[in-house]
Amino acid sequence: MTARFRRCGHGSGPMHPGDQKAVAEFTALLAARQRPAPCTGRADIAVQLGGRGLERGRTLPEQQPDADPVALVLIHPDTETALTGTLHCIRARIHGAWTGPYRLLIHALAGRDLPPDIDLST
Question: What pTM, to 2 d.p., does this model score?
Answer without folding.
Answer: 0.68
